[in-house]
Specification:
- The termini are far apart.
- A hairpin with a 4-residue loop joins β45 (about 705-710) and β46.
- This protein has a 9-stranded parallel sheet with strand order 31-30-29-26-22-21-20-33-32. The chain has an 8-stranded antiparallel sheet with strand order 2-3-4-5-19-16-15-13.
- By secondary structure, it is an alpha+beta fold.
- It has 12 helices and 52 strands.
Length: about 800
């Protein structure tokens, strides 16, 4: 049989719907639906019923104000933000904004096409069109000229060019002539995106091996707005337990239990803050889920309780494969409740993985997820609240799950071809929902290797089995930045590399960069060197302590940034493309790796082997975060990058709430909010958010939120009145005034005394070598002006002249 391309034909019939159009184009059903003022859903299907993914989109159509029009040549669907223009003969789509400027359009020749079961939408390419996001993908920041597949894969030791990886997120952001838009291709089959690769810029395209052409077109005036509109579709993160923002130590594996006690005690003895210790698969009996090896861990409940007393939480690993061993209660229960995936003849699918021959839970069915939730009681009864979901692409030895294996898929009964990409997503959903069921009002923490669009509602993502190397350090940063632009703001990487062994220089640089990442964990492979902060020598230990201390000082800012992600979907680590997408300088060199933590702190990762590096600072004025040296933006700079010297900058106008160092997030701070404010001409604002950090009481009003605003022109700083019923944990506020030349200040109309203080945000490194190899920086910021006042629930207004 010869298969040739078949492009969508002409409009045959149509009717208006409540907020769009539906009808036929030759033998193809279509439907166009305005979901919101900024989002239009496009559906084409050769079947009578449209295909549905029941897992990713949580938003229902919002019934926006819509204008529906028709003429001889076109159908027009117009909202306040975007217009869909549908050419009738042949049917081709075009999206324009409220200023009548083109955002995106179908290729005139091919438009939506079929090649056998494969469905593709071909789009024209703008001359300077930029493509961003697509989640966990290697390569450069701008995806132009590249192509990618989405098919969740166990990519052990992956490289920059490895594709696909573990997570599939078929959502990208385009920027055409400076105007952003987004497309979320809601199809869970294997998908392919081509941004002008191998066709000399004839077109861009996205395709699926089967299923419908089903996408959401998203208009936003900025890249940040596109991300927020996408987050309305697929959901935002839950507020995490605060302990999951702390430093986390892992290896494959810590056992027996005295080794864990030794690691926990050493962190405390050396005064290196830490919150989490992980147990990899060696804690299990014969690598079977929902067991503990009673020889290595004679009393896991007592172990977990003892670590809790020391300020640690324990996170355990979970794999989806259930060993096929009669007498193993989890297996027997799964067989009895019939929750494993099967072949079409009804026999259970079996493959080999860590525990040997295994069946696999069908997490795409409610029954399977409910069973998993009940099994989790084994762990929660021991006091566990954190769960690391691994091998859930799903992975098995041989890496070739037969395509005919069947999954429930919320009653649709589909093959592996449709279910694979959502399997890990639904596993971690089952884990998160099961933990919530078992631990009540406490917030659980879930981490996953595999996922799909919407996984952020349940879990953080880590980027899998990376390699110890400078290229992997920078690749991990780009992966997390890209995940953030794809609606997954909580991501991280194995600091130091899972595969191979890290040099002291690389470890210190990697840890410094990761101190600003949403998820902060060191992890290393079996049969490799120790990889705790003290394992690389005295100097690396001090550098590590410095940056881990800094993360804990930044906890008020970091937690407030997580809250912003929870409310809006904005990334925590933000590629420069989020705010500076029209600056061409960000798409080359080290700028592709740079990111901001929230709005204000710019981190410029550089390789560990260079003493000097070229970095790019976007427009505006920037303060070196550790010295207050001022740099002009919109240009490249050569900066010093020794082992301990990570380039970090605060933007003019920045408002960065901080606290004193604590050894874990369960420990109380000293009650003083340290508010670092950087002089700037623009109006800026920062949310300060607090709650108990451990329960869902914030959903019932138990939170404290206040807006802090700086107006450089009017020379005011306003700490807004607190909202919510939770009492702030801070009794006073000390304001550090960076770059201010004023000499007279008032607080709530009364003259305020300025104090001068020498401060360090990180400490100088001790000279351990009697023959110094290099000069060490002091990091002392001299004589900075400060103001102090009681922090009440009322507004505080500070003025200067």
């Amino acid at each position: 049989m010869n298969i040739r391309n078949e492009s969508l034909g002409s409009l045959s019939s149509h009717q208006q719907t409540t907020n769009g159009f539906a009808g036929l184009a030759n033998n193809v059903n279509f439907q166009f639906t305005a979901y919101t003022e900024n989002i239009i859903r496009v559906q084409f299907s050769k079947d009578e019923q449209f295909d549905e993914n029941p897992f990713s989109v949580t938003l229902k159509p919002q019934q926006p104000a819509v204008k529906l029009e028709e003429n001889e040549q076109e159908l027009l669907l117009t909202t306040s933000a975007v217009k869909l223009v549908v050419q009738k003969h042949p049917m081709r789509l075009k999206f324009i904004d409220s200023n009548n400027e083109l955002l995106n359009e179908d290729d005139a020749a091919f438009g939506v096409s079929w090649l056998g079961h494969k469905v593709t939408n071909y789009k024209t390419l703008g001359a300077d069109e930029i493509f961003l996001g697509l989640g966990e993908k290697g390569g450069g920041l701008n995806r132009r000229g590249s192509s990618f597949d989405n098919w969740n894969s166990d990519a052990f030791g992956f490289g920059n060019d490895t594709d696909p990886l573990y997570v599939s997120t078929p959502f990208y952001i385009g920027v055409r002539e400076g105007r952003p838009y987004g497309i979320f291709f809601d199809n869970t089959h294997k998908t392919h995106f081509n941004f002008g690769a191998s066709n000399n810029d004839r077109f861009s395209s996205f395709s699926a091996d089967a299923g419908d052409m089903n996408y959401y077109f998203i208009q936003g005036d900025t890249v940040a707005e596109v991300i927020q509109h996408y987050a309305k579709l697929t959901g935002t993160i839950q507020m995490p337990p605060k302990w999951s923002l702390g430093y986390q130590q892992c290896r494959f594996s810590y056992y027996p239990e005295h080794e864990i006690h030794n690691v926990a005690r050493t962190f405390r003895d050396k005064k290196i803050p830490a919150d989490v210790i992980y147990l990899d698969i060696h804690y299990m009996k014969d690598y079977m889920a929902f067991t503990f090896d009673d020889e290595r861990f004679s009393d896991p409940k007592a172990l977990i309780a003892k670590l809790e007393e020391q300020g640690y939480k324990v996170v355990i690993i979970l794999d989806p494969g259930i060993a096929t061993k009669q007498g193993y209660s989890t297996y027997d229960s799964g067989v009895e409740q019939d929750i494993f995936v099967k072949y079409p003849d009804g026999t259970k699918y079996e493959a080999s993985v860590w525990p040997g021959n295994s069946h696999f839970t069908d997490f795409t069915s409610k029954k399977g997820r409910d069973w998993w939730a009940d099994e989790l009681k084994f762990y929660t009864d021991l006091g566990l609240e954190g769960f690391w979901n691994d091998m859930n692409e799903p992975a098995c030895w041989g890496q070739d799950v037969p395509d005919l294996v069947e999954f429930d898929y919320e009653g649709q009964q589909v093959s592996h071809l449709k279910a694979r990409n959502v399997y890990g997503f639904q596993m971690v959903r089952a884990t998160y929902e099961g933990a919530r069921k078992q631990i009540g009002n406490k917030r659980p923490f879930a981490l996953t290797r595999a996922g799909f669009c919407g996984v952020q509602r349940y879990s953080a993502v880590w980027t899998g089995d990376n390699v110890a190397g400078d290229d992997h350090m920078l690749l991990g940063v780009r992966l997390v930045n890209s995940l953030g632009m794809t609606g997954i703001p909580v991501g991280g990487y194995d600091v130091g590399g899972f595969v191979g062994e890290c040099s002291p220089q690389l470890f210190s640089r990697w840890l410094a960069v990761a101190a600003f990442a949403p998820f902060f964990r060191v992890h290393s492979m079996v049969n490799s060197r120790d990889s705790e902060p003290w394992a690389y020598g005295e100097e690396v230990e001090e550098i590590s302590r410095n940056y881990i201390n800094l993360r804990y000082k930044l906890m008020p800012y970091l937690y407030s940034t997580f809250y912003t992600a929870h409310k809006t979907g904005l990334p925590i680590n933000r590629s420069l493309a989020v705010a500076y997408y029209n600056d061409r300088n960000i798409y080359g060199g080290n700028a592709q790796n740079a990111f901001t933590l929230g709005d204000w702190l710019l981190i410029c990762p550089t390789v560990s082997t260079q003493e000097y590096a070229e970095i790019y600072l976007p427009k505006g004025k920037w303060y070196n975060f550790f010295t207050d040296e001022v740099f002009e933006g919109g240009k490249h700079h050569i900066v010093h990058t020794s082992m301990e010297d990570l380039p970090v900058f605060a933007k003019a106008g920045a408002i960065v709430p901080m606290q004193n160092v604590i050894q874990n997030t369960q420990q109380a701070h000293d009650g003083e909010l340290k508010l670092h404010v950087y002089a700037g001409e623009e109006n800026t604002e920062q949310v300060l958010y607090e709650d108990d950090g451990s329960t869902f009481d914030f959903e019932k009003g138990q939170f404290n939120e206040r807006l802090i605003q700086q107006n450089g022109a009017e020379k005011t700083l306003i700490i807004g009145a607190s909202q919510g019923e939770f009492n702030t944990t801070f009794r006073s506020v000390k304001i550090y005034l960076h770059g201010f030349n004023a000499t007279e200040f008032s607080i709530n109309g009364a003259s305020a005394d300025i104090q001068r203080e020498n401060i360090r945000l990180i400490d100088p490194i001790t000279e351990f070598d009697p023959l110094p190899q290099r000069a060490k920086k002091d990091y002392l910021i001299h004589s900075i002006a400060t103001l102090s006042t009681e922090l009440t629930n009322s507004e505080i207004k500070i003025t200067w002249k």
